[in-house]
Amino acid sequence: MAKRSKAYRQAAELIDRERLYTPLEAAQLAKDTSKVKLDATVEVAIRLGVDPRKADQMVRGTVNLPHGTGKTARVIVFATGDKAAEAEAAGADAVGSEDLIERIQGGWLDFDAAIATPDQMAKVGRIARILGPRGLMPNPKTGTVTPDVTKAVNEIKGGKINFRVDKQSNLHLVIGKVSFDQAKLVENYAAALDEVLRAKPSAAKGRYLRKITFSTTMGPGIPVDTAKLRNLLEDDAQA
User: Biological process (GO) annotations (predicted)?
Assistant: First the structure.
């Protein structure tokens, strides 16, 4: 295991490993333990009680973060004609069809989300092996295969994010930046948690939320109380 930096060790000392923090406490600790000079990203990792190897226990969905991620997403759109013009007008960072596919086949992946009109999906399927493992493949379930490209681009640039459980039964979601105040981080977390709970598969048995951890870019994990699910700000204020 690589040796941790002095800054990391100092940050880790601020965290009591014997307790579970409320979301508001964890948000403040995330801000306090961020030792990098940039405006670090705050992420939540959620261990779920599902078996993602089983199709009926896959967890995926989208969430519109009320305060965004703190970063303007780079969005590409596979479309032609009027739909391509609409995507460009909405602020898409790249728009195209065969030309965009060839660019991606050549190794270009400088974007955060991909949208496609339904008629483009047969073509986009040729790069599914490139986009799929990176969570970038357009999908009707996440609203990224749609004729309404204007709405899709605006939502993603406004803070809509996708989530999907990985092979280890974990979800990783960005909930903001350390420059956000505690309330905004917690409100984003609450919105994300609501969607994760809504996405619970009916086939999942036993405890669904196994473990929740806040962290920042290159920062230590902060264990969060999974029982704090509703009225997060009010609960914390009364704690």
Answer: regulation of translation; translation
User: Per-residue pLDDT for 232 more than 60?
Assistant: no
Both tokens assigned to 234: 């009010």
Report the C-alpha gap between 61 and 141 in whole angstroms.
Answer: 7
Assigned token pair, 210: 């196994």
- pLDDT tens digits along 159-191: 999 899 999 999 999 999 999 999 999 999 999
Q: Where are the domains of the chain?
A: 15-69+161-238, 75-157
Q: Select from 3.30.190.20, 1.10.287.180, 1.10.20.10, 3.30.70.980 the CATH code of 15-69+161-238.
A: 3.30.190.20
Residue 133's identity, in one-letter code, is P
Under 8 Å between Cβ of 149 and 86 = yes
User: What is the β-pairing status of strands 113-116 and 75-78?
Assistant: parallel
Residue 136 half-sphere exposure, CB side, CA atoms within 13 Å?
Answer: 23
pLDDT at 3 over 80: no
CB contact set of 39 (below 8 Å; sequence gap of 6+):
70, 177, 178, 179
φ, ψ of residue 184 to 5 degrees: the values are -65, -40
Average pLDDT of 216-230?
83
pTM of the predicted protein model = 0.81
